[in-house]
Design brief:
heterodimer, A: alpha+beta, 29% helix, B: alpha+beta
Chain lengths: 56, 594
């Protein structure tokens, strides 16, 4: 994998190194947008479940 | 530049996208998915924290959440690895999703679970803390580690941890050294019940996985989790996982290596029937797969491959939307119900993994029955994936990335299309696929009633059927006709899944089958055709199961003229016959219609 390789920009902000007690500072940033987007998906779809009966 | 301004989105390299689309994805690609899940969980945790901010501080659940959040912040600062462990737990994802859904519904979430989760991470990290935790059924749950028994009377207990010992209330003290999962090799520890776990090893590749049976946020599947497994049952699960792991590592290393990274939890499920084998995955709980007890290690290995495909796709879908929601439902060759495009994509992806699994497993088997099973599974699901990909692309519900993903997936499937399959296995694969599709059509394809009436009138008058464009339209309508679970269908599947049991049951002759079914299963197709025809003609009630049987029997005859008519128009023929009433020969009707 080279550094020049094309990358898909995803809809999730990278928060892994962000201090939890400072998340409130991100209120008006892409985080709020991402949360709203995610909650909208959750509301639309619920939490879809894959369930499979191997005997069908 | 401050941290807020420099916040970036997760990025997915093209090579990882391509590999995942082809059904693969090495451990590095899985770590990319995991990293995104950790960010997602932080995001959801933040959304819950915002909601808690408006809560009553005197509420013990709210106070416990705030204490848990504060503790997790400290852990993140002192031992980032422990925070990463917690934020990657499928338990936490399940809880966060449920909390947000409850908030959206105006209900009160289980805020206090975060105190338990943070306490578990603190115990791992050796970070001292003191907080109140909820007691359920006499235990405090420490997700990912186990349960602390604190007595039946309290609903809350004060936990104190000094980095070496965990104390609950005034009487329970447990050393940090034993506060971990239970691998089945140690002595019982007073007050502590470690989460059952298994560490398996084959050809140098190890996998460590929890067998979770007590966390309410992983009890989220269509079947209940198998709570209260005995030591004997847990030993059997551990042995089964070990045996399945040997199958995976020795014959399917492409799947085994990323499973080590991507699956951390197995949830044993309790099936409704001992013959059912149910497995499931939830996008809320990345890294967890659920399954009822599989009958053998190969089936367990297949189940792990299958469900891990869902895990990967769920992770990818959180990063890149591939399908739009809300469109019409369509046929999926592995489900009894109509599926939306997103559900069909999940099934296709899972079955691409299954096809690859059986492609290799065919070479690994030595018993003739097992070889037959492997060939039929490979042939059946290979054809199913190919058909379903076409259906999915025709829905028009995929995003541009979804179209690209599906096309890459199809390219991978095409590389398997020339693989030879022995004739008998191919015949069984085609028959069970046809049985499934026609049964689904009878259940879920509605027909244009007025157009069917016009056809019936034309038939009575002895006229030729109407032109092609006037043929009754059909559309998906769930459960438009009643059709119960067919013993015949079960037997057809059993003929390759459990050939020995199939032979035994057929020899007994005690099964509740019609005479025509017996003839079909006995491979007397011509007599079976007559039997089904007589059954349909002579019955005053509709016989949907016999119509499917008739179609199957016709397909067993070499080049029968009516095969294609039955395969393509069964719901219309059935409704037309119902309209005409008893006494009409279904073969004459099909000949006239076709």
């Amino acid at each position: 994998m080279t550094s020049q390789e094309k990358k898909i920009v995803t809809v999730v902000p990278d928060l892994r190194d962000f201090p939890l007690d400072r998340l409130g500072e991100l209120g008006g940033t892409p985080l709020a947008h991402s949360i709203a987007l995610y909650l909208e998906r959750l509301k639309e779809n619920g939490v879809p479940l894959s369930s499979f009966n191997a005997r069908i | 530049m401050n941290r807020v301004a420099s916040l970036k989105a997760h990025r997915l390299p093209e090579t990882a996208f391509t590999a995942l689309a082809a059904g693969r994805g090495d451990p590095a690609a899985i770590r990319l998915l995991q990293g995104t899940q950790q960010s997602k969980h932080i995001m959801l945790l933040h959304a819950i924290a915002e909601a808690v901010g408006d809560g009553d501080p005197a509420d013990r659940g709210v106070a416990a959440f705030q204490a848990g959040y504060e503790l997790l912040t400290r852990i993140q600062a002192t031992d980032p690895g422990a925070a990463t462990w917690l934020l990657g737990l499928p338990h936490l994802g399940g809880w966060a999703h449920d909390a947000l859904i409850r908030l959206d519904q105006g209900a009160s979430p289980d805020f206090a679970y975060l105190a338990c989760a943070a306490a578990a991470a603190a115990v791992r990290a050796g970070v001292p803390f003191e907080l109140d935790a909820p007691v359920r059924d006499g235990h405090v749950l420490l997700p990912g580690l186990g349960r602390l028994a604190v007595g039946d009377r309290a609903t809350w207990v004060r936990l104190r941890y000094d980095g070496e010992q965990l104390a609950a209330g005034n009487g329970v003290v447990v050393s940090r050294l034993v506060l971990g999962p239970d691998y089945g090799s140690g002595q019982p520890v007073p007050h502590w019940r470690g989460t059952p776990a298994v560490r398996v090893l084959a050809d140098g590749l190890a996998w460590d996985v929890l067998l979770v049976t007590d966390d309410p946020y992983l009890d989220r599947y269509t079947l209940p989790m198998s709570a209260g497994l005995s030591e004997h049952e847990l030993r059997r699960w551990r042995q089964l996982v070990q045996a399945a792991w040997e199958v995976l590592v020795r014959h399917h290393r492409w799947a085994a290596e990323p499973i080590v990274t991507g699956v951390s939890v197995i949830v044993p499920l309790t099936p409704q029937s001992e013959t059912d084998l149910i497995s499931a995955t939830s996008p809320a709980s990345f890294g967890a797969v659920a399954t009822s007890w599989p009958p053998d290690p190969v089936t367990m290995a297949e189940t792990l491959v299958h469900e891990f495909q869902h895990v990967k796709l769920c992770g990818l879908l959180d990063m890149v939307p591939l399908a739009e929601s809300g469109a019409e439902k369509v046929y999926a060759p592995w489900r009894q119900d109509p599926r939306p495009a997103g559900g069909l994509l999940q099934g296709i992806y899972a079955h691409l993994g299954i096809v690859r699994f059986w492609q290799s497993q065919r070479q690994a088997e030595t018993d003739p029955d097992h070889i037959l099973r492997a060939h039929v599974q490979f042939a059946r699901w290979r054809a199913a994936v190919e058909d379903a990909v076409g259906t999915l692309l025709r829905t028009g519900c995929l995003t541009p990335e979804g179209v690209r993903f599906t096309s890459l997936l199809r390219d991978q499937e095409m590389t398997l299309s020339d693989e030879p399959v022995p004739g008998p296995a191919l015949r069984i694969a085609r028959e069970v696929a046809l049985d499934h599709r026609l049964t689904w059509q009878i259940r879920h394809l509605a027909t244009d009633t007025a157009a069917v009436s016009k056809l019936a009138d034309a038939y009575r008058r002895g006229e030729q059927p109407s032109r092609q464009q006037d043929r009754p339209g059909v559309w998906v309508q769930e459960d438009v006709r009643k059709l119960g679970s067919s013993v015949r269908s079960r037997l057809l599947n059993m003929s390759y899944l459990e050939p020995a049991r199939y032979r035994e049951l057929c020899a007994d002759g005690v099964l509740p089958l019609s005479g025509a079914d017996r003839l079909l299963l006995g491979r007397d197709a011509e007599a079976a055709v007559r039997g089904y025809r007589d059954l349909i003609t002579g019955s005053a009630d509709p016989q949907p199961d016999a119509w499917v049987g008739l179609a199957l029997a016709l397909h067993r005859l070499p080049a029968a003229v009516l095969q294609d008519v039955f395969a393509a128009h069964l719901p219309v023929l059935f409704d037309l016959h119902c309209r005409l009433g008893a006494g009409h020969d279904p073969l004459d009707l099909a000949g006239w219609f076709g």
